[in-house]
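thought: fold this chain, then report.
action: predict
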Amino acid sequence: MAKSSVSMKLLIDSKAGRVLFAEASKDCVDFLFYILSLPVSKLISLVGKQQMVGSLGNLYESIENLNESYIQPNKNKDTFLKPVIPSTSGSSVPLFALEDSPSVRALYRCTQSCNNYGYVSDDPTALCPSCRRLMSRAGPTNLGALSNMAMHYVAPPAKNESCEEGGFVKGVVTYMVMDDLVVNPMSTISSLTLLSKFNVKEVGALQEKVVHLGMSEAVKLLKASLETDKVLTSVFLKGKGVPVTPR
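observation:
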């Protein structure tokens, strides 16, 4: 089961009022990379269409408000508003197993004799490419009783699941997450180089804080990543309600 929260350690320049970078475990990095696999409409539903910058929220709301009479009979709004998230990005990713695609889902065949072509669909309103009939109801076929049942797709287990790590990146190192979400494996040399790059002259002005990411903070990170290149500073220094533990 995915964790309900993960944490990362921020290095903050208190004098400049900004996050220089964060030390993150594989769990955090898996979550950040997982964002890239989410469909746009899923991002909008998580952030909230009223909170979206630009006009994508308007497109989302337009589909919501569109009368069913204007939609093709073999289509439905959920195709765009609630797309199926790839099963490969599911439960092995900590924190964000929000609405993972089910590992088992129904697949439907054409009910006419053209089922010999092997057409299948995961939408019972789909039309058979051969006879243009719905692929949902049972009918006479040469497959006998089996045609009266929807087939079920079973997702394969994630590769190398035997290592019990799951996710995308390996947990052999700690990762460095920059304020703009650039992610790299962390090293002492890279940390010192960054301090020089940021022109940090007063080491006493540096503070370490551990922040915990639950679902609420995850959505804030997601929203900030669409609005600014100072994501960590925006969420954890200027935001409100984020649990912070001094270290």
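thought: worth noting. The radius of gyration is 24 Å.
final: tokens above.
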